[in-house]
# Entry
Amino acid sequence: MEWDELFASRAMRMKASEIRELLKLLERPDIISFAGGIPDAALFPKQAVADAYSDVLTGPQSSAALQYSISEGYVPLRDWIVRDMAKIGIVCTADNVLITSGSQQALDYLGKLLLSPRDTALVTWPTYLGALGAFNAYEPNYDRLTPLSNRPAEAYNEQAEQAGGAVKFAYCVPEFNNPTGETMPRAEREWLLDLAESLDIAIIEDAAYQALRYEGEAVPPILALDLARHGGDIESTRTLYCGSFSKTLAPGLRVGWIVGAQTVIRKLVLAKQAADLHSSTINQMVITKVAETVFEEQVSKVRATYSHRRTRLLDALGQYMPPGVQWTKPQGGMFVWVTLPEGMDGAALLKRSLETAKVAFVPGKAFHADGSGANTMRLSFSCASDAMIEEGIAKLGQLIADELAA
Ligand code: PMP
# Structure
């Protein structure tokens, strides 16, 4: 059977992610891994989740919890999200919220809704690998978003036309970006809104790490700035905000959301109906109960733990990395982005590291839509103990120094 001949053209762009393939290797106990990028399971609010499942299944909601439910999502959960969004300057109603199965599904639906084959998506180099994976199925071209650059809006349109389509959206992770850990300053967010207005395109604001700030002053979300430009009228905004409970509560429940103008949400509801009808009813109920009872406490715990690990990692990099190696200083999130001296290759370094130093990280190339970034790598500190950081970064620093000397 020649399956390859049967696959649709969109399947050509579906490739195994380097990271997922790599994660399989990293379960070896002798490896110190900064590769994963997943939340620390020791922090999950297990008791609160167990209590919530028990309450839901033994209380008056038990039948509804196991039944089909509306595609828009569980109303009390959407109401909770509306209140949570208001705290960061996003004033909306439950009709502006769609519950998704993780924010990953939000990215898939937005790709499906906005991209025809050969249309252009603007992304930063590097960007979240999972977003490229989600959008790739809709066969787009990518053009580079370089914040604060003077490139005229017309140049984006011309390039998109040459590629056979139109520019549809700009995608970004403005808070504690995966992979760089960086935050987009306010001026860059305003620049992006100006660019999107000139091009008349949407902005996809991926806010998966929104709650994980450890220091520095909060910057308003792009959707909040967009609302301010339109007198608070969400129906006039162009930003689609994707939120998630994965990094605050637990990713395994698969609950995320999109906030945006109702015109878009109504269309997304149809996409959701066609794809999976709705996200798990019981998980939405459980998340609501957990969010209503322990959210703040949980987020404080997660922030304190990751903040400590970030500081230890930055200190260790300062101590052990040879001259010529640079890295970001994130104010939150889970990642530090390392730039090796020009000419060094992150993938080759990983291969050697797994043989000798036995330290793992993710080479940065996969995060670049154009295949550049060979001399970069991502380190995740979310699951790293003090001892792992000390030993792992010392060994990695030594390996890099040896390579540079060779
Ligand atoms: N966006 C970014 C930037 C992420 O890092 C992740 C998870 N790695 C997601 C979205 C998807 O997360 P989830 O589907 O669990 O909400």
